[in-house]
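ligand=beta-D-glucopyranose
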Amino acid sequence: MKKKLIGLAITAAFAVPAMAQQSVEVLHWWTSGGEAAALGVLKGNLEKQGIKWNDMPVAGGGGEQAMTAVRARVTAGNPPTAVQMLGFDIQDWAKQGVLADLNDVAAKEGWDKTVPAALQRFSKFNGKWVSAPVNVHSTNWVWANKEVLAKAGITSDPKTWDEFIADGEKLQKAGFIALAHGGQPWQDATIFDGVVISTGGVDFYRKAFIDLDPKSLNSPTMLKAFDRMSQLRKLVDKDFSGRDWNVAAGMVISGKAGFQIMGDWAKGEFIGAKKVPGKDFSCFRVPGTQGVVSFNSDQFAMFKVGADKVAAQTKLASAIMDPGFQSAFNVVKGSVPARTDVSDKDFDDCGKKGMKDFAEANTKNTLVGSMAHGHAVPASIKNAFYDVITRHFNGQIDSKKAVVELAAAAKS
Ligand code: BGC
């Protein structure tokens, strides 16, 4: 009898299935050198906890292609654990009722107290946390190769729009490409964020892109902003069409070009190439926009997943919000932490400036959501704006037509 019992116990022990390894599937568009390096920090932290990382990269800066991929997965009833997402897209998915409720982990870790309200506005839906913000980027930056500028006789960063254009012309005369740019709609729009703030100021930007005031969208100030885009177009080389943003950053890094106007993810490429801010390159706000920050925050929207996947998903959310991780990740990514309690001590000069600018803009109410990166208007309007901005940049419509079309696009 005893023997039989032992036999049964052994059989039962062998019948227990081996504990399946916990895993997360993460969909994102971080495929450039700097982006992949930053993501590696998160991957590494999860793997240290024994969680397998199933990577689902969808190339394409700004994330348009990634959003198409998400739609297909959700429609098929098989969403990934977490998806890199921007602003209004998070809210759109939350409205569909497909995002998870992170309130337990958020309450336990005090997210309400440490994440700035400007980000919470996108991370929460109907009082529930549905996504974990990993960073804050901003779009109104210029990246410059110091040696190239010196060769063109430029000894300080341009402070005004006219100085910037004059410096661009000096660069061209000295045989350089003045402005490294990639002709893709989201990149044209990224430049437009800064140009609109520089031309009309922060209140004008708000009225036009956040309130969608038709009189501001179709106004002499907006007309001037489009004219300034035409000035920039003259500073770009002839092969710009379709070029990826990181290739454009590479042109500044290698000394082919002087400037790039791009969000601070560009810094990730400079750092990856072992370039030092202040020595090899400089970072400054688009002339005329100092004091204003047009931000976008990458967040990981968490989808409702099967009960067997919830534990790993919660660990992922918690790993993203960890203060040590937020420092390590953002040092590499070029962005600044999505928490207010992280020290700037490990950040380089551009990162320190980014953190200071963000904090100041937050207090002074000069922090605005980036139109180009989904933090001003929902995707339908954003895409309609992209279309107008790109057709204008490519010379298909003039500034007069562009302002009329921009006002019409706001009704999309
Ligand atoms: C994201 C960045 C990313 C950039 C280029 C932006 O929309 O916020 O994290 O590096 O696109 O891919």
